[in-house]
Structure formats: C-alpha cells, structure tokens
C-alpha cells in the first residue's frame, strides 16, 4: 500500500491510496469463501456450492464488499500511522480501477493542541443573592406553578398563553402545525412572532415573514394566568402549617440552589478563560452535530437566524469538551464502572443487553467531564466580590 496527501490542513485531510489489484482479488476470494459457508443454491447443499459458481452469481456484491473492506482496512492503516483522530467517517470521493487500485478519501480530524496553564486559573466568585431577593424570586416561581389559567376575550398581552394553528410555506417547503400554545415574550420564539401576537384576539389571523418563510397564523384562544397570593390558605393547600413556615422551607431550598448556582457560575468563568487561552480549529462535522443538538433542545428549526444564534455556541461546546478530555487524560481523571452504575441506579435508567455499552460510554463521558471541571474548580484561585443587586420597584 502507498498513499499521498492531496490536500491537508489542521482539521481536513484528503488522501489518495494506491493498492495492488491483487489485494482486491484476494479479498474477493475471502468474501466468496464466507458466502460459501452460508449460501445454498439449487442442486448444492449449504457449504457445498462451487466457488466459481458463487463468484459468477454474486460478482457485483462480492466486489462491492471486498472494495469496502479494502478501503476501510487501508484507510485505518493510514490513520494509525499518521496518528489521526477522525471526527467522523471518511468520505470516499473517487475510485480508479486498474493496477494499482486508487481511491481518494476525505476526512475531518480532531487537531492536535497543547494544554497548559489550566491550574490556578484566577476567577471571581460573587456572593450569593441576599435572602430577601431569593425569597421574592422563589415566591414568584411558586405562584407561577400554581397559577390559574382562564380564557379571555381581550387582545393578547405579554405573558399571555396563545393557542394557534400555523401554516408555513416558502423555499420549496410546507408545514402545518395545529394547537400550538406559546407564551408571548418567550425569547426562544422569533421576535416577529412575539410582536405580531400582541393584541391578537380569538379567530384573528396574522401573516409574518421569517427567514424567507411565510407563516399564516390562526389565533384559536388567548388565556391569562391568574397568580395566587401566598397566605395561610395557600400554604394549607400545600399541606404546610402556615405562610411563614412555607417561606422558611422555601428559603432553605433556595439557599442550596443559590450555592450550587454560584459554583456553576465560577465554573462557567473558568471555561471562558480556557476557551480564550486554548484556541484551535474544530471540525465542522462536530459543530454541525452539536448545532443540531441545540436545535433539538429548544425544539427549533434550522434557519439562517438560528444558525447565526447558535453556531458559535456549538463550536465553543465542542472545543471545551475536547479541552476537558485532554486535561482528563493528562491528569488521569477517569470514572470507574461502579460510579457509572451508581448513577444509573440513582436516575432509574434501564440497562439492556443492547444498550448497556452505549449507555455506559455516554455516562462515563459525562461523569469524566464533570470530574474534570470539579478538578479545575478545586485548583482555581477564586476571589470573592460583592454582588450588585437591583431592587425591583
């Protein structure tokens, strides 16, 4: 086997591999023998069909399987020799039959990069929010959770819930979604949709243009949330002695959440420092997968505006995960299968014969990243600063 680089960059490799024709013929013979063990043809028992007959009858499929093996095996040899870390499967771009056989492959690889200065990262930690602020926010959330929703005849306002049918067309596509309920002011919605729903009443229709698509909207209902007062009666419905006891219990939980949030905020600062210090190109294949994952998280379509909003975030996520993996390897930070199985038990996940390895690999990756981030937090230089809290009027 011989190969030469056609094009090469930090993350993109295009190679041409040359292999003697005899290697393909050898693999065809090998595939033929495998088929002979399994196939039965009229007049011949299983395992007794002549090889020449099998080659004649299944010539195209045998050649295709042999070529696939030849490409795969020679490509893996190059990967091992070059010590590449492919980001995705290689793309076969051209095959030239002859002697030798030649085929061109394109692959994106994870680039080599150096990591240092990840210990003693200097970051600030703000003091937790004061109790009165936490309690006020917590009570607002509690009231939202126990709100009563009523249909209204007036025009829709911010925070109202509007149920709509949306018919979308444009750029060669069409889609219809019925009984979609949205909250006006939800920042995950396009600004055009939020604006056009304000003032809309039941049976109204609206038409908006977003990213070259036309959305025809039928308003089916407008609903308002009525928030309850937090008093002794409300506490009793939650099986708590009185409002004071409810606030006390609520505050205890909020303090724990706030402590966790402050730590996560510091970790986020650490991640930003690392992303600023350690820069390298990220394969577009990995960014695309992460971008699609973000869209799925928010139940959003692929569009120019969403690509502009989330593509850089996807790149940062991938780059940071690669940095964490490198630190974990350098510091020998790994998780045991026992730790993974403990998480499986605590979360109630079910392991089967078919998903066991995938689940363990997936959770192992997540726990290793978490352990690495905790390591960075424990080894950071954290200074405390006062937090400025704006009082609500």
Pick out its properties.
393 residues, alpha+beta, Alpha-Beta Plaits, Chitinase A, domain 3, Trigger factor, domain 2, five-stranded antiparallel beta sheet, four-stranded antiparallel beta sheet, 48% helix, 21% strand
Radius of gyration: 30 Å
Helix content: 40-55%
Class from helix and strand fractions:
alpha+beta
Return residue spans where pLDDT drops below 50 for at least 5 consecutive residues: none
Q: Count the E strands.
A: 11
Total domain count: 3
Mean pLDDT: 92
CATH superfamily caption of the largest domain = Trigger factor, C-terminal domain
Q: What profile does the largest beta sheet have?
A: 5 strands, antiparallel
**What characteristic shape results from the CA principal axes?**
extended
Distance between the termini: 76 Å
Strand content: 15-25%
Q: Looking at the chains present, what oligomeric state does this protein adopt?
A: single chain
What is the CATH C-level name of the largest domain? Mainly Alpha
As for the CATH topology of the largest domain, it is Trigger factor, domain 2
Q: What is the H/E order?
A: EEHHHEEEHEEEHEEHHHHHHE
Q: In the CATH classification, which architecture of the largest domain applies? A: Orthogonal Bundle
Number of distinct helices: 11
């Amino acid at each position: 086997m011989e190969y030469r680089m056609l094009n090469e960059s930090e993350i993109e490799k295009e190679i041409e591999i040359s292999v003697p024709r005899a290697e393909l013929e050898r693999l065809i013979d090998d595939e033929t023998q495998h088929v002979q063990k399994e196939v039965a043809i009229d007049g011949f028992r299983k395992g007794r069909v002549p090889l020449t007959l099998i080659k004649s009858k299944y010539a195209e499929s045998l050649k295709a399987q042999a070529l696939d093996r030849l490409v795969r095996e020679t490509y893996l040899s190059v990967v091992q020799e070059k010590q590449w870390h492919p980001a995705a499967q290689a793309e076969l771009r051209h095959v030239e039959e002859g002697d030798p056989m030649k085929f061109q492959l394109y692959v994106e690889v994870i680039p080599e990069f150096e990591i240092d200065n990840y210990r003693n990262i200097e970051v600030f930690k703000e003091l937790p929010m004061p109790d009165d602020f936490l309690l006020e926010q917590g009570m607002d959330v509690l009231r939202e959770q126990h709100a009563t929703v009523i249909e209204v005849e007036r025009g829709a306002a911010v925070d109202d819930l509007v149920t709509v049918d949306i018919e979308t067309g444009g750029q060669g596509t069409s889609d219809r979604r019925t009984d979609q309920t949205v909250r006006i002011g939800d920042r995950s919605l396009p600004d055009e949709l939020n604006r056009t729903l304000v003032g809309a009443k039941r049976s109204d229709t609206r038409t908006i243009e977003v990213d070259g698509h036309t959305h025809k909207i039928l308003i089916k209902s407008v609903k308002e949330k009525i928030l309850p007062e937090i008093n002794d009666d409300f506490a009793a419905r939650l099986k708590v002695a009185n409002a004071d006891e409810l606030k006390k219990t609520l505050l205890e939980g909020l303090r724990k959440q706030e402590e966790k949030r402050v730590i996560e905020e510091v970790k986020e600062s650490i991640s930003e420092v690392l992303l600023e210090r350690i820069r390298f190109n990220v394969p577009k294949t990995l960014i695309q997968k992460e971008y699609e994952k973000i869209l799925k998280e928010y139940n959003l379509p692929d569009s120019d505006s969403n690509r502009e909003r989330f593509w850089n975030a996807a790149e940062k996520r991938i780059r940071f995960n690669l940095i964490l993996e490198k630190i974990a390897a350098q510091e020998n930070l790994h998780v045991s299968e026992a730790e993974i199985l403990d998480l499986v038990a605590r979360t109630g996940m079910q392991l089967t014969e078919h998903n066991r390895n995938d689940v363990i690999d997936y959770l192992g990756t997540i726990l290793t990243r978490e352990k690495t981030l905790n390591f960075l937090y424990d080894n950071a230089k954290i200074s405390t600063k006062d937090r400025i809290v704006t009082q609500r009027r």
